[in-house]
Amino acid sequence: MGEAVARVARKVNDTVENKTDSLDLANCKLMSFPVGVYKAMRSVTEGIHRISLANNELKSITSRFVTTFSQLTELNLAGNYLHRLPEEITSLLHLRAIDLSRNRFRHFPEPLATVPALETIDLEENEIAEVPTDKLASMALLRSLNLRANPVGPEVRLLVRPLVPFEVLLSPEEPIPKA
Fold it and tell me: Is the pTM higher than 0.85?
């Protein structure tokens, strides 16, 4: 535990001291975003454009996280235990890519459909059966939606160009077993 805390502190200090535009807290065994990080990074939060919290043990992302790091263009939350996103995710006006693969989403996180700059959504290996196809079709900049390894229904498989202006990545359909 102490080693993980020290690793987080080191990574945060490196980001603050070097004024880099990214914060990588992947593989840090985090169960929640450390409150102390907000204070430690308050002078540089506007300059943070990329955050990776991949492969932790996060069960939720707070509205404070989203509003603090309001200039994000890329957010990697893959490999956690997330099942929903805060409504405030819609305030990330510059967010172009979000990786939510290998989480616990049962429903498509609908607030994503109103994030204006979003180009890439990765939801591979969740438990999503339905997606709001009408809302997704109206996302002007969306280029790729990865739904591989999700139990999506047949209506999602009908989302093909030119009906939607983006690429939909799906797992191959399982063959129907013969009796």
Answer: yes
